[in-house]
Write a structure and sequence with these properties.
Elements lengths: L1 H70 L40 E2 L7 E8 L3 H4 L1 E10 L2 E11 L7 E8 L34 E3 L3 E3 L8 E3 L3 E3 L22 E3 L6 E2 L11 H4 L15 E4 L2 E5 L4 E5 L7 E2 L7 E2 L7 H4 L5 E4 L4 E6 L59 E7 L2 E6 L3 E9 L6 E6 L3 E3 L20 E16 L10 E13 L10 E6 L19 E9 L11
Parallel strand pairs: 5-7, 5-25, 6-8, 7-9, 8-10, 9-11, 12-18, 13-19, 18-20, 19-21, 20-22, 21-23, 22-24, 23-24, 24-25, 25-26
Antiparallel strand pairs: 1-2, 2-3, 3-4, 4-27, 13-14, 14-17, 15-16
């Protein structure tokens, strides 16, 4: 039996060897598979990290371009004309010490290392500035590279500026030019005006005012019974307490303040206003094509009346105008392109009607007193047949009229109004298109200004001095203290900017109430303007045009110091391989 068993065992020992070998092979395969899986997982994890990090590198490229723009606002002119993304743009490569390898677009050319990152994190970008002149928007396509992975984003950048706010004010006082306040009042409340005795003409938000949009003041805002439904910022930063003045004009504490956003107002630095709107005059110089004005706008001289027509045309009456663009440097020559209207028709009483120049600026200047200027008129000379009187030969209390119908009959005009040689703009109508209307002196809104298409039409109104809501009134015994306008209410669809003075209603305290002043857009001014006083003027209904967060009227003015913010960004297919070759 024992022998038999030994025989059986010995026989099975011979069969076990192949089994051991088979098991060993299987275990080897399992180990190999496990190692391969682990290695593949490691590679996949590394690739995932690179893929994620390359998006951050792409955004670092956008931030780099933003920084360059903030330091040099003219940087918008730079890019690589060889980039497909820039094919519709007017860009050129910076040279010398300004050379930027981030504009490289071919294989083998260097990328820019992301500051503070490892040696495998880079970016490059391309620029599309084709919409900059029309909307103030720059589009950047930035590609990030980490290891062998690339990802690309497209970001829209727009300047932070006056049109970011429904209501922007530099000083919270009446314009000293139209009040009895001394010039010493022209300082911020938080910077010393609070210690000035007497009345500096400070204006409070009160009377149940409701402001439905973002607000900023460089000054200390006086707020009583008013509601703010959007963000409120101020450059007043006390060590403690509210960032606004809660005392009324008598120095007593007032109540009724409501802020929809907790913590309002919050601090924000001073936003510097430009000294003048003379940049818009520069934008009518066709001789500066190589220096940043590839599409000059239209120039008109002296009192000018513009009617916006819903069919996309405008009618312009401007009797002092000789040339509608400047071609010499300095102003020694001029031209009359058809896009700005026939000069003979501009000078006629009926005016010239023509298609609104697309996405551009129209500037109205004072009659030049320099003989070399193409629109010069000697002080003793004037256009043939023009009399410096108003409607039906009427004159204001100073014996003046502007020759194109102002003042109207029986109107008592405010001092300084309607001079015959001022660069005043009188505007009304229905806009179909995108334009900025700018004046060296006053802008008068003489009727409703509405958008024909509220989704597409955009208007900028810029006065170097005041922007007036025209409200002619009488002052003689027959029509004592009455408005001369029929009907009530006024609507203005526009981004409004008074560079050196104020946005206000003319004669706000005279006569009965004029109804409601609706502004759909944005208002920016150096000084607070009066819209209603006593029983006169208008009740305010100001609504922010949210499109102004993403677009701007053509060639609208920007603050002296500005930053560029990202409005929208999206990820797109990678523009480059890791080698630098375009996809």
């Amino acid at each position: 039996m024992i022998r038999f068993l030994r025989a059986r065992i010995g026989g099975e020992q011979g069969a076990a060897l192949p089994m051991v070998i088979g098991i060993t092979v299987v275990l080897g395969l399992l180990v190999t598979t496990a190692v391969a899986y682990a290695t593949g997982g490691f590679r996949q994890a590394a690739a995932t990290q690179e893929w994620s990090a390359s998006l951050a590198a792409a955004y670092a490229g956008v931030e780099d371009y933003q920084s360059r723009l903030s330091e040099d606002t003219s940087y918008v002119q730079y890019g690589n004309p060889a980039a497909d993304f820039s094919s519709t743009s007017d860009v050129r490569l910076p040279t010398g010490t300004n050379a930027n390898p981030a504009f490289n677009v071919t294989a083998g050319e260097t990328w820019v290392k992301v500051p503070g990152s490892a040696d495998d994190s880079y970016f490059r970008y391309e620029v599309d500035n084709s919409k900059y002149q029309s909307s103030g928007t720059i589009r950047v396509r930035s590609t990030g590279k980490v290891g062998g992975e690339t990802r690309t984003i497209v970001a829209d950048l727009r300047q932070s500026g006056f049109i970011d706010f429904l209501y922007f004010t530099d000083y919270e006082i009446m314009d000293p030019s139209f009040s009895s306040a001394p010039s010493s009042c022209v300082k911020y409340w938080w910077d010393g005006r609070s210690s000035i005795s007497g009345n500096c003409g400070e204006i409070a938000f009160s009377g149940g005012d409701t402001i439905d949009g973002p607000v900023h003041s460089n000054d200390t805002i006086r707020i009583c019974s008013a509601s703010f439904l959007g963000a409120v910022t101020t450059s007043y930063r006390p060590s403690s307490g509210n960032k606004y003045n809660s005392r009324d004009s008598n120095g007593n504490y007032c109540s009724g303040q409501y802020f929809d956003i907790p913590g309002s107002p919050s601090f924000s630095p001073v936003i510097g206003m430009p000294a003048t709107n003379s940049q818009h005059l520069r934008e009518t110089r066709s001789d500066l094509v190589t220096d940043g004005v590839p599409r000059p706008g239209c120039l008109y001289t002296g009192p000018t009346e513009i009617t916006l027509n819903s069919n996309g045309t405008i009618t312009v009456h401007s009797p002092w105008t000789k040339k509608t663009q400047i071609t010499g440097s300095p102003a020694t020559g001029g031209s009359t392109p058809a896009m700005c209207g026939s000069v003979s028709q501009l000078n006629s009483s009926s005016g010239a009607t023509f298609t609104l120049p697309p996405s551009n600026v129209i500037y109205v200047q004072n009659v030049p007193s320099v003989s070399s200027d193409p629109n010069y008129w000697a002080s003793w000379n004037r256009p043939s047949g023009l009399s410096c009187v108003g409607e039906s030969g009427y004159k204001d209390s100073n014996g003046n009229g502007n020759g194109i119908g102002y003042p109207i009959r029986y109107e008592v005009a405010p001092n300084g109004s309607y001079d015959c040689r001022n660069g005043d703009l009188f505007v009304k109508g229905t806009l179909s298109g995108q334009t900025t209307l700018s004046a060296e002196h006053y802008v008068y809104v003489t009727g409703d200004i509405k958008y024909n298409d509220p989704q597409e039409d955009v208007l900028g109104l810029v006065g170097n001095d005041a922007v007036w809501v025209w409200n002619p009134t009488t002052g003689d015994n027959r029509y004592y203290h009455h408005t001369l306008l029929g009907g009530t209410n006024r609507r203005i669809d526009a981004a409004i900017l008074s560079v050196g003075h104020t946005f206000a209603v003319q004669n706000p305290s005279i006569g009965g109430g004029r109804g409601t002043l609706t502004v759909n857009g944005a208002i920016a001014q150096k000084f607070r303007g009066i819209v209603r006083s006593g029983s006169g003027g208008y009740v305010k209904d100001y609504v922010y045009d949210g499109r102004l967060k993403y677009t701007a009227p053509p060639k609208f003015l920007s603050p002296v110091t500005t930053t560029y913010g990202v409005n929208v960004w999206i990820e797109v297919e990678p523009a480059f391989e890791a080698s630098g070759a375009a996809r």
